[in-house]
From TrEMBL:
InterPro entries for the chain: CRESS_DNA_REP, Helicase_SF3_ssDNA/RNA_vir, P-loop_NTPase
Family: Belongs to the nanoviruses/circoviruses replication-associated protein family.
Chain ranges of the CRESS-DNA virus Rep endonuclease domain: 1-110
A Pfam family matched in the record: Viral_Rep
Protein name (record): ATP-dependent helicase Rep
Keyword Cell cycle: no
Keyword entries, A-Z: Covalent protein-DNA linkage, DNA replication, DNA-binding, Endonuclease, Hydrolase, Metal-binding, Multifunctional enzyme, Nuclease, Nucleotide-binding, Nucleotidyltransferase, Transferase
GO molecular function terms listed in the Swiss-Prot or TrEMBL record: DNA binding; endonuclease activity; hydrolase activity; metal ion binding; nucleotide binding; nucleotidyltransferase activity; RNA binding; RNA helicase activity
Source taxon at top rank: Eukaryota
GO terms for biological process, alphabetical: DNA replication
Length: 318
């Protein structure tokens, strides 16, 4: 006799005890189960019309033995699970395990215990509730979970009109100067003032306040660990990396969302608000080839997008 994960069932003239037995069966043996309480229009016979997906394939006689309800009629599902669930829901008086959402998985895919755990992790990640996701799911799927979180964040256009002016335009900053003049310290001060400004801005404009977080990006193509932070800091820019990363930097310093890579996933859109960079080199030096000639396709647009500050020894910028 054949085995399957998927069954449909009917139980006429059911009792409250039999309903309870089915519910306990669902919690023990099923990835999902739902049924509707119905009444036949011609005979008035009350019955349960339902379907379920087991955690492991079983024969009908095994399932019936586990249920212990002789009167129940079981058959293999002839359609995809969601089609059966839609049919069983027509009475609008239903019971679901583990919940309605998982019985109507939007892709109509088989939902095993393993995929149910992943779906739960996805739902938590989209809400930013990473501390509630199991360690197992984080270890196996962290890049994908972070991708889901970021791609479900609202993407703002950067040119916001407000009483403080288009302040975002002024916070793509390259701070350059020789080693030891305090560039990193100045960046820390910028971050502190940005946070103070944002808190005041939200208060004045009656916006829900959420503290601005900082992402410290390494000088490579990866955005590992990025979780939608609004402030991006890149330190110690050098000409070699700058030449290879000109296109990414032009996107980073524009107003529109753009795609980035992290190890294990591609995030289709991010949009930081503020970008602070430090370097021992000026923008012209960063955009120069080894022979000293300027890479115009990088220099011209970046000169327009950046605010350039040069720091000297014993000088405080703020």
């Amino acid at each position: 006799m054949s085995q399957t994960y998927y069954y449909a069932f009917t139980l006429n003239n059911y009792t409250p005890l039999q309903e309870k037995i089915i519910q306990e069966f669902a919690k023990t043996y099923c990835a999902r189960l739902m049924y509707g309480r119905e009444e036949a229009p011609t005979t008035g016979t009350k019955h349960l019309q339902g379907c379920f997906q087991l955690n492991s394939r079983k024969r009908p006689d095994n399932v019936k033995s586990l249920l212990g309800i002789d009167e129940i009629h079981l058959e293999f599902q002839k359609k995809v699970y969601t089609a059966n669930a839609n049919y069983c829901e027509k009475s609008n008086d239903c019971w679901y395990f583990p919940n309605k959402q998982e019985n109507f998985d939007r892709h109509g895919r088989p939902l095993t215990k393993k995929s149910a755990k992943f779906q739960e992790a996805l739902d938590l990640a989209r809400q930013g509730r990473f501390d509630e996701i199991s360690a197992e799911m984080i270890i196996k799927h962290e890049p994908r979970l972070i991708k889901q979180y970021i791609e479900h964040l609202p993407m703002e256009n950067m040119l916001l009109d407000n009483e403080n002016g288009n302040f975002f335009n002024d916070f793509f900053i390259l701070l350059h100067g020789p080693t030891g003049v305090g560039k990193s310290y100045s960046v820390g001060m910028f971050v502190a003032y940005l946070k103070m400004f944002w808190k005041d801005y939200c208060k004045k404009n009656k916006l829900a306040y959420q503290e601005l977080d900082v992402y410290y990006k390494k000088c490579n193509k990866w955005w590992d660990g990025y979780k939608g932070q609004k402030i991006v800091v890149i330190e110690e820019l050098e000409p070699n990396w700058f030449r290879l990363s000109g296109n990414m930097l032009k996107q980073l310093l524009d107003q529109y969302p753009f795609p980035v890579e992290c190890k294990g996933a591609t995030i289709n859109k991010i949009r930081p608000w503020f970008v602070l960079m430090t370097s021992n080199y000026s923008l012209r030096q960063l955009c120069s080839k080894e022979d000293g000639s300027i890479i115009e396709e990088n220099f011209k647009p970046l000169r327009r997008l950046y605010c350039h500050l040069m720091q000297k020894r014993n000088e405080t910028i703020m």
